[in-house]
């Protein structure tokens, strides 16, 4: 993806995409004390929640440059979720914005779940929140299949979003976004395409349960084609929940 396309995606995430994330699960964990890690580039959510993480992680240098200006005073680390440079470091890890969509195969998924489990403190009360695109509803909602007006870089743009299924197992789909400037019709449109992955929630809770984490909540949001899961370190003698989360 070229630099101009990345800048448009980052601006779009800050201006519009935060509205697609259900804040209820985030509100349930953000008030916890201790050190917290934020993974991903939905920085507008941090402002919306009035939240101050201890560290922000993203693999993209341009995204971290945005974080430095938008969430001042918080250290940023350039790292991939599959190879987080932390061990037993955080009481809370928040990974909203469907970062899991970039884990396109099971090897990448298990690398990420291993990395997340190592970064989380193995203590009672530690919490990990992850979310993902829901394979039961992502193709029925309008998130990746809609035309809508957005305001980016102080100008009016028409966003044309389309998605095309690629495979069923794993559930992969290609996304095409086309931004057309309404204020300057002669300006060339900005277009980008990328591949994403959707999940059945059980795929994520099984992968994280295999790393010794216990799922305490699953929340589905068909309107946005997403779900979220909350995990904590499993205590000795706790019920094995690899076949389903506690509700």
Write a structural description.
- With 247 residues, the chain is of the alpha/beta class.
- It is 25% helix and 33% strand.
- It folds into two domains: 3-134 and 200-233, Vaccinia Virus protein VP39 (Rossmann fold), CATH 3.40.50; 146-197, SH3 type barrels, CATH 2.30.30.
- It has helices at 3-15, 23-30, 43-49, 61-70, 106-119, 201-209; strands spanning 36-39, 55-58, 76-78, 92-95, 127-134, 146-152, 155-167, 171-181, 190-199, 213-221, 226-233.
- Strands 1, 2, 3, 4, 5, 6, 7, 8, 9, 10 and 11 form an eleven-stranded mixed β-sheet that branches.
- It is globular, with a radius of gyration of 18 Å.
Short characterization:
The protein is an alpha/beta fold and 247 residues long. The protein contains six helices and eleven strands. The radius of gyration is 18 Å and the shape is globular.
């Amino acid at each position: 993806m070229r630099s101009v396309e990345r800048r448009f995606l980052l601006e779009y995430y800050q201006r519009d995409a935060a509205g697609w994330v259900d804040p209820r699960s985030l509100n349930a964990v953000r008030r916890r004390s201790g050190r917290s890690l934020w993974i991903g580039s939905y920085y507008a959510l941090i402002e919306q929640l009035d939240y101050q993480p201890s560290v922000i992680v993203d693999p993209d240098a341009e995204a971290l440059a945005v974080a430095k200006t938008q969430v001042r005073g918080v250290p940023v680390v350039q790292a991939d979720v599959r190879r987080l440079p932390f061990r037993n470091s955080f009481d809370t890890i928040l990974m909203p914005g469907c970062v899991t969509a970039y884990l396109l195969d099971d090897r990448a998924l298990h690398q990420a779940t291993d990395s997340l489990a190592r970064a989380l403190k193995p203590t009672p009360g530690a919490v990990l929140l992850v979310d993902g695109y829901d394979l039961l509803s992502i193709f029925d909602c309008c998130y990746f299949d809609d035309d809508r007006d957005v305001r980016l870089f102080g100008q009016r743009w028409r966003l044309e979003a389309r998605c095309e299924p690629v495979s069923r197992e794993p559930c992969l789909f290609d996304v095409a976004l086309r931004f057309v400037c309404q204020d300057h019709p002669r300006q060339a449109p900005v277009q980008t395409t990328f591949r994403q992955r959707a999940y059945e929630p059980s795929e994520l809770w099984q992968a994280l349960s295999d790393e010794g984490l216990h799922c305490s909540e699953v929340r589905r949001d068909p309107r946005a084609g997403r779900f979220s899961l909350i995990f904590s370190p499993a205590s000795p003698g706790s019920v094995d929940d690899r076949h389903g989360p506690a509700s």
